Amino acid sequence: MDFVYVGILFFALAFALVTIYMCYVLIRVSKSMKSVGNSLGEVEQKLHYLTPELQDTLQETEKLVDDFNDKLTATDGLFDAMDNTGHAINAGSRLMDKQTKKLPEYDSPQTIERLTEGAKWGEVAFKIFRRWKKKSVKNELVVQEENLPAKK
């Protein structure tokens, strides 16, 4: 029976040690929780300051994205025009290729002489047109100057 009392004594001591250790652990957990609570309080205060700043930043970013999207949409016409220009250049290239194949038909001296004569007359007509245009612009300036109010 003495062994039973000694066993109960050891069991009571072990229980007391486990209880003391549990109290020690719970005290440390409590201190850690207080520290976490304080840290979260500071984080909350900082977030109250940062949240409006982040909202403003997001609104500005949204405006920038919308502006970028509008400007990108505005360039669609440019790229369509470039596409049309590319198609026109291809068509012109095909026409040039077709005409180049017909070139031997224009190889006779008479045809070349007629083409040269036509180019000369075209240049003369262009020079006359340019002179006529300059005179027309000068006449417009003279008419405009006559319609101006007199200077004091």
Could you explain how this protein is built, in words?
The protein has helices at residues 2-74, 76-102, 109-146. The chain is mainly alpha-helical and 152 residues long. Among the domains are: 1-69; 75-105. It starts with a helix and ends in a 6-residue tail after the last helix. The model has no long low-confidence stretch (mean pLDDT 85). InterPro entries: UPF0478. This is DUF948 domain-containing protein. Keywords: Membrane, Transmembrane, Transmembrane helix. The chain crosses the membrane at residues 6-27.
What is the strand tally?
0
Global Rg: 48 Å
Counting helices, strands and paired strands, the structural category is mainly alpha
Could you say which overall geometry the principal axes of the C-alpha atoms support?
rod-shaped
Provide the low-confidence segments as ranges: none
Structure at a glance:
The protein is mostly helical. It is 91% helix and 0% strand. It has helices spanning 2-74, 76-102, 109-146.
Blueprint (SSEs and pairs):
Elements: H1 2-74, H2 76-102, H3 109-146
Keywords:
rod-shaped; mainly alpha; 152 residues; transmembrane helix; transmembrane; 3 helices; UPF0478
